Amino acid sequence: MIMLFIIGILFLAALVIAGYTILTYNSFITLRERVYNGKAQVSAQIESRWDAVSNLISATKQYEKHETEVLENITDKRTNLGGDSTVSDIEKNDAELNNVLGRLIAISENYPELKASEVYQTTMESINKYEDNVRHSRMIYNDVVTKFNRQLKQFPSNIIGSIFNFELQAYFEESAEKANMPTWD
Predict the structure, then answer these.
(1) Orientation angle between helical segments 65-76 and 87-110, nearest 10 degrees
(2) Nearest alpha-carbon partner for 42 in 95, 76, 85
(3) Global pTM value
(4) Exposure of 21 by Cβ count < 10 A (0-12 exposed, 13-18 middle, 19+ buried)?
(5) Contact at 8 Å (CB) between 143 and 111?
(6) Are 38 and 86 in contact (CB under 8 A)?
(7) How far, CA to CA in Å, does 43 sit from each of 108, 128, 133, 153, 162?
(8) What digits encode the pLDDT tens for the residues 36-83?
(9) Most buried by CB count within 10 Å: which residue of 31, 47, 80, 115?
């Protein structure tokens, strides 16, 4: 009778451990997918900004051919981003975009007619909207990464995470360039 009781307790303990392992593993999978989705959302917003910048370049063509060619060469180098892109890839792409925007602003300062045009103003509003969306997407991404990384570091879920080779995820961090972004007004 005692032996049956011990076997029952061992079986129950194994069942609890297996259940916890399955729940924790599934939680890691859910959070990791949210991390990937968050990265894809940031990437999609940056791609939308690139599209708006391409429209702005089209509007500047009539004002300065040399500058437009330089900017088009830069936009031709843009890379496609997605959920499998690293944070570093996304930040590099974003920095390239900010470089192009800085040049466009400088060009527009030399051509008041361009700056006053409806196409220019509408496109800059779109760029501002996408910039806000990128910021918001980065915040959501960082929140999900915080949850994932916290679960990966906390005991006893850290044991499950290490068994299944889950790794800490990188955050988007504010760089000096982002902190000192030019205004589009």
Answers:
(1) 170
(2) 85
(3) 0.72
(4) middle
(5) no
(6) no
(7) 27, 16, 11, 27, 29
(8) 999 888 888 888 888 887 777 776 766 666 556 666 666 666 667 766
(9) 31
For residues 172, 176, 179, 185, the Cα torsion angle rounded to the nearest 10 degrees is -120
Residue type, 29: I
Give the separation between CA 90 and CA 92, rounded to whole angstroms: 5
136's CB contacts (< 8 A; 6+ apart) are none
Quick: pLDDT tens for 108-141: 777 777 667 777 778 888 888 888 888 898 899 9
Which among 185, 181, 3 is positioned nearest to 97, based on CA atoms?
181
User: Are the beta carbons of 94 and 130 closer than 8 angstroms?
Assistant: no
- SS3 track for the chain: CHHHHHHHHHHHHHHHHHHHHHHHHHHHHHHHHHHHHHHHHHHHHHHHHHHHHHHHHHHHCCCCHHHHHHHHHHHHCCCCCCCCCCHHHHHHHHHHHHHHHHHHHHHHHHCHHHHHCHHHHHHHHHHHHHHHHHHHHHHHHHHHHHHHHHHHHCCCHHHHHHHCCCCCCCCCCCCHHHHCCCCCC
